[in-house]
Amino acid sequence: MPNLWKRIHKLRALLNVRVGTGAAILPSAATATKEFPAITRLHLTYARKIYGGHQGARHFWRNCFPRLKYHNPAVQMTVKQTADQEGPAALTIYFSENISNAASLSATTEIKDQHAPTPSATEKTAVMNLKDLTYTDIWQKVKLATGARDLVATPEEQAELQKIEQMRQNSEADRARVASIRQAKKDQELMLQQARGEVEKLKQL
Amino acid sequence: MSSLNSLIPTGTRSVLSICRPPLRQGSMAAPILFSYQQVRGKASSNPQARGKKSKEKATTKKKKGPREFQQVDLTQMEQFALCDAMRYLRAFEVGREPTTSKYEIHIRLKSKRDGPVIRNMLRFPHSVQTESRICVICPPGSRIEKEARAAGAVLVGEQEVFDAVKEGRIEFDRCICHPDSLDAMNKAGLGRILGPRGLMPSVKTGTVVEDVANRVEMLRGGTVYRERDAVIRLPIGQLAFSPEQLRDNLRATIDQVKKDAAGLNDRITKEIYEVVLSSTNGPGFSLNGEFTSESSPETAALSGV
């Protein structure tokens, strides 16, 4: 098993899952209102490479999906990465009963996402076009459409974030310092080797 | 040998003989010469030779490390309840292929560096892999065939199996053979086809067994595990498992490991020191032994894709 501190540092990633863009609670069956019905599923489809405007969709999966999943464990989330660069970059939101007004405004009807699972009898879907949007834009769009409630980082979490940021800055300075030490050592060795080589040459003469 | 030795000075000769003593056993005179030179080598006052010897001794007398594996102090490590760890892991695995992502368990043991290691096979209450298809080679029409079929083997028989394999229809992932059919199988010459795929039954790999039915049962849902550097690692569940299913599997694993540790030897004690749950793409969570905590969500929310 790896060194304990390595493991502890690795678990810092947990903070990143709890706070940041996309850390929000989607309306569930208990918190649904008339305006914003409950969300049952999310499905994301995008292509493998970034050209054709697929970058934001992939970043949305990388950055926001884990946070959404953490805060809404009951919502099913699926992702399909296609090889078709011309194909859609789309997010399908599954509402129970009916679609929210905001979602119906921003949703498109042109995109046909054949990878999205078929909605059940009580589900209604809204498809969003994600092409050429950054992941923060996508998140704003999703937030408006679903009525997700953003979670603010607690003071402890903020303190920890600050601590990590401080460590990051310190590590940059430390890295430069250690690099200079190593370089000095290497220079010294090279110099010694050259000096020895000259002695050898003199001996041969 | 003697002609070569006569060309070089005595001191180096002894050194050379140290370097490659057993190479010269072809000639009859070699052992005699060899012992003679050993004596010379010891007596010689050549400083070079002496230096070399002392060095050799130094390397053999290396300082021994600690007898036991070093255990880390877990007071600094944050530990999690099973449901909380699952919640995080499911967040890390979101959008991954659900069939490839698995929960894994790492069991850290308190154990000595030398001595026996735990190696065994385990059958989970909830199968981790999708069931593997098993082929059994045994005399057709016998009791063994019936048992194998009852245990869930897909393809059973002798000649029909050989024909199918030779035609290139290999529709199984594991192959077991009964000792009675071993000769027939060797004669059929399946090694060329099955060998490269790692499917050829052999006594060495434990796939030629008397008790076919039991083995089929084991292979269908069994997982092989072993201790490496005092850690046992094995996949323990599919990502779609509910916390209850995972708990059952975890309990079965830990009970089995404890049983293995107890059954090793009277003088050897192995204990479980830490249990870490991770997943294919997630970090490792040290478990605290609890099932839920106050902040964990309902267990129903933690299953499915």
TrEMBL record, chain A:
A Pfam family this chain is assigned to: L51_S25_CI-B8
Primary location recorded for the protein, binned into one broad class: mitochondrion
UniProt xrefs under Gene3D superfamilies = Glutaredoxin
Q: Which UniProt keywords apply?
A: Mitochondrion, Ribonucleoprotein, Ribosomal protein
Q: Where is the Ribosomal protein/NADH dehydrogenase domain?
A: 49-149
Name of the protein this chain belongs to: CI-B8 domain-containing protein
The subcellular localization recorded is: Mitochondrion
Taxonomic lineage from the root: Eukaryota, Fungi, Dikarya, Ascomycota, Pezizomycotina
Keyword hit for Ribosomal protein? yes
Query: Can you name the source organism?
Result: Aspergillus lucknowensis
Automatic annotation (TrEMBL), chain B:
Q: Give the residue range of the signal peptide.
A: none
Q: Does the keyword Methyltransferase apply?
A: no
The record's section on SUPFAM superfamilies has: Ribosomal protein L1
User: Under what name is this protein listed?
Assistant: Ribosomal protein L1-like protein
Name the Pfam families on file.
Ribosomal_L1 (PF00687)
UniProt keywords (A-Z) are: Ribonucleoprotein, Ribosomal protein
Q: Which protein family is named in the record?
A: Belongs to the universal ribosomal protein uL1 family.
Write down the Gene3D superfamilies for this protein, in alphabetical order.
3.30.190.20, 3.40.50.790
Region (Disordered) residue spans: 41-68
What domain of life? Eukaryota
Keyword hit for Nucleotide-binding: no
Question: Compositional bias (Basic residues) spans?
Answer: 50-65
